[in-house]
Design goal:
Shape of chain A: globular
Radius of gyration of chain A: 30 Å
Number of helices of chain A: 30
CATH class of chain B: Alpha Beta
Helix content of chain B: 25-40%
CATH architecture of chain B: 3-Layer(aba) Sandwich
Distance between the termini of chain A: 76 Å
Shape of chain B: globular
Structural class of chain A: alpha/beta
CATH topology of the largest domain in chain A: TIM Barrel
Structural class of chain B: alpha+beta
Order of helices and strands of chain B: HHEEHEHHEHHEEEH
Strand content of chain B: 15-25%
Distance between the termini of chain B: 26 Å
Oligomer: heterodimer
Strand order of the largest sheet of chain A: 1-8-7-6-5-4-3-2
Strand content of chain A: 5-15%
Amino acid sequence: MDFNELLKKDHIILDGAMGTMLQAQGLQAGGIPELLSITEPEKIINIHKSYIAAGSHIIYANTFGANRYKLKERNVEEIVKASVKCAKKACEGTNALAALDIGPIGQLLEPMGTLSFEEAYDIFKEIVLAGKDADIIVYETMTDLYEVKAGVLAAKENTSKPIIVTMTFEENMRTFTGCSISSMAITLEGLGVNAIGVNCSLGPKELYPIIEEMSKWTDLPIVVKPNAGLPDPVTNKYNVTPNEFAEYIAEMNKFGIRFVGGCCGTDPDYIRAAVKALEDMKPAVIQKEIPSAICSPANTVTVDMPRIIGERINPTGKKLFKEALKNKDIDYILSQAIEQIQGGAEILDVNVGLPETDEKEMMTAAVKAIQGVADAPLQIDTTDPDVLEAALRVYNGKPIVNSVNGEEKSLDTVLPIVKKYGAAVVGLTLDKDGIPAKAKKRIEIAEKIMNRALAIGIPKRDIYIDCLTLTASAEQSAVMETLKAVEYVKKHLGLHTVLGVSNISFGLPSRTLINSAFLTMALTKGLDLPIINPNIEAMTGAVRAYRLLAGHDINSSEFIEAYGSTEPVQIQGSHAEHTLEYAIEKGLKGEAGEITSALLKTKTPMDIINEIIIPSLDKAGNAFEKGRIFLPQLILSAGVAQEAFEILKAEIARSDDKSIDKGKIVIATVKGDVHDIGKNIVKVLLENYGYTVIDLGKDVEYEAVVNAVRENKCRLVGLSALMTTTLGAMENTIKLIRENSLDCKIMVGGAVLTPDYAKSIGADYYSKDAKQSVDIAKEVLG
Amino acid sequence: MIKLTGINKAEALRYMGYNKSIDLTDIEPLLKSCERELLSVIKPRYCYRIFHIESRENMILKDCSLHLSGKDIRAHLQGCDKVIIFAATLSAGTDKLINMYKIKDMTSALILDCMASAAIEQVCDMAEKEIKENTGNMTWRFSPGYGDLPIDLQSDFIRSINAEKLIGLTVTDSNILMPRKSVTAVIGLSDSELTKRRKGCAACNMADRCQYRKRGEHCGF
């Protein structure tokens, strides 16, 4: 029997717990059950056989924790092979299938943790290859959607076996890492797995709402493999009996479940009882329409009303952004992401293409970093298929691809990538002849794109059409053609629509007036996904007002939440009585920008820095040293100075004045260490004194520090370590810098360091706090 | 299920390096809003198992592969016949919030980080109280990395109580717990009265570089 054959059954029965059975037979808590496949294979085979005898159609091999990380120096291949062999042996002479069972690696993935996506892929690939004799691949007890994605890709790219994924949810309907059920479902269905569901987590009864929710979001067969209730901390016994378990399982039939088994605390009795309870039941058939949606792990955005796509992560026409890309300044991009979400963006377009920079490297770095701080789903915006694939690979969730168009070459290269990674896609209504002037031709292209996408297996709900905004000042008559096309595509093709709005007003005065009017016109014609600058209140406000007026914003609650408490905003000069010195001292962040702009009328940026910012910061630094203010207040002052700096930087970018740069400093939290608060504080302070800080982040490889110092010809490096266990990495980093005979001084800091220790590992300076790092920088760089 | 309704402010301020002569008036609103936001993302979870001490000599636990080595843990468990192997976490949402603020506003990031450190201790205290209702006399929490109890026990520790599955706790190659604001600890259990053992700087391997001692204070442990 194979998997497809099996799917013809009403219910497919999985097995119950392996660990529970082994612990009952003497395996210690904390012991490694996978080793028994080699030392006592008969024991494992017998457990498998007892499940098959109880009615299991699929048994899970004893490979749950058999990964490189958990097995440490032991041989993964040998253990996986032995375990799969046990399972296959037990299946002999029966119709049962053996699944390669893969659990979480046991390390948190980046950006929260330190395990990279690529390394996770390798770890899974190793298991998948070693387990090639299994019939099915199962990922279970997963809590991190990113880890699951690495696993699914490893399985799909190295075998052609069916894949089942079950994750573990809590009562709040989320996994430990915050992944929602909808995000899991739409991401994994997009990636092309064969069945999804839930295992472990809670007892069977507590899973009802989770299964019910999951069935709304997928057409895939649903799997349920609950625990036998909760364990007792002393006896480790579970509190739900086989009969109760079976009753609960039978009850879940109404949600259309197809695969059923047991997790922790269950044994063959539970499986037998479940088989009996489901005996005469047909799985419920549920009529549903899967919503059009995209997601990050924690946030599913349904396209059932206009949703705002933020356009600001894009270097076109932005000097500071281009500068940031050249300097690989990811933090700048992150601040743009956060600002837009605060402004009201629900999806973020990410475009980091710039000649003379490595777009692929920048795109993957940006995608990874943004998903570490923001929950908004992303729209990957690039014209290079290589960059696109790299970005989709490391994206955690279901993104939008921007874009494909009606040209054959585009359709042939982009759509297969979209399909492989299960993204939604924007189709631009242009082809080799450019943008058609008339709506009719654009609609034809939209139809062509739709048909080609459908043919490759991309569902209709994932195709968004961009009818293209032309500039009103140049082609006034084209404006209504665009809107006509939007209306037709929405109504007659039944597709969602997207439009970049801002382009409409190019070359005209008072652009916001034009933009917001055009936006509202388009919304009434059926625009679903306006791409706008969400930081402009008139734009975000137009979308929110539309949602209220069109009846999407029920009881106007979203609108009132956004605007109900705000005082009318007035740009005024009322802060004139506050000086920049005062704002820095008092931590008045909101005022710094305005005061600085006013100061620029009479002073040069350099004068403002030297005469006001630095003396004010020195004053705060002194107060800090004397214990009159404490660290949060010092950082607050630095934050205000930073606001002022942003204004000055923009001014300097305009005037191409390089005089602000007092020298470059590389800083990093050393390899293995993830404590970066201290390092970030140092960065803020150094930047405020006019130094350019190249921040390599946390958990930084030795070579990365050396390369950064060399590339930037830095004369000062700051290294931070917060753990006694990572001091070795600090020493190694210093050693490598010295070995490469780079002409730079090294300062080190962190709670576990002492001046003596700093000296002993070869550092030039020990910095006891952020303030002192500035003193050191002054000494070294001036 | 533990629910935190407030952060131990005095403790959090101490982590921030506060002393009594500092005027908090200007920063008070920020402290308040940080506390509110932190409380909204914290999802305290803990898990534990109780094991009998089979051999005091080598600190072997019955039915458990975890080996508690070193003289300090032996001294800590004097008079105990059982141990609680315990783990608690504020969960991943806390890390995410702090990471977001590292980009948006470092002051808030610092405050949140210190508040979260205070919060995880509060969670541990509350968990201990709950556990105590069903058990006997308890020692204080002794964590890997403290005294000569090796920090590289972390992965065995997590494994022995299934903490990855139960509360989502993991550990990096350099023995850092993830999510960041988490605690693992050994608590001794005894039916008879336990003599109070002093926690203090003498047993601490940070004693010579401790920032609190430098200020003439004490970490409270």
